[in-house]
Amino acid sequence: RLASWTLGWWRFLVLPFLPILPVFKDYTDIVRWAAENWVRFTQWAHHHKIHVVRYEDLCNDSTGVIRDLCPRIELGFDNNMIDTKSPRRAFWGVGAPEVMMGKPRPIDKSSVGRGKNLTPEHIEIVKDVTSRAAGEYGYDL
To answer: Which residues on neighbouring strands pair with residue 91, listed in sequence order?
Structure first.
């Protein structure tokens, strides 16, 4: 009885404040949720005037992207920012200590282009859900 009474109150006091986790019945649900989530992110970023960097651009031209970002965050560009062979150093307090203390490594490009692994049905879902927002970010679907 005590447990059921406690769980009863817990359900009303705690559950409303927990984030709702999505439940997926198949891969199609996952693809649709991911596409919709990406669109919501782009809308949020646009609303808050947040500059978004495409990961593909960071992989293909990291120097150019970082040079473009530095003035936006009022930080001077330094070639050490892109050097993966030398030990890292903090740039005027920017960077998480646990990352800054780790061994430098190049940007992981393995996720770029993975959309080609989607089924034709999933590609159509992504196109239908994201086409307008994708075009605004330079993606050609």
So the answer is: 94
Helix residue ranges per DSSP H, 2-119? 2-13, 27-47, 55-60, 62-72, 97-100
Q: Cα(118)–Cα(114) distance, rounded to whole angstroms? A: 8
Q: Mean pLDDT, to the nearest integer, of 25-38?
A: 95
Pinpoint the alpha helices (H) of 90-119: 97-100
Contact (CB, 8 A) for 91 and 78:
yes
Residues 87-133 have pLDDT tens digits of: 666 555 566 777 767 777 788 899 888 888 999 999 999 999 999 99
Cβ within 8 Å of residue 49, ≥6 positions away: none
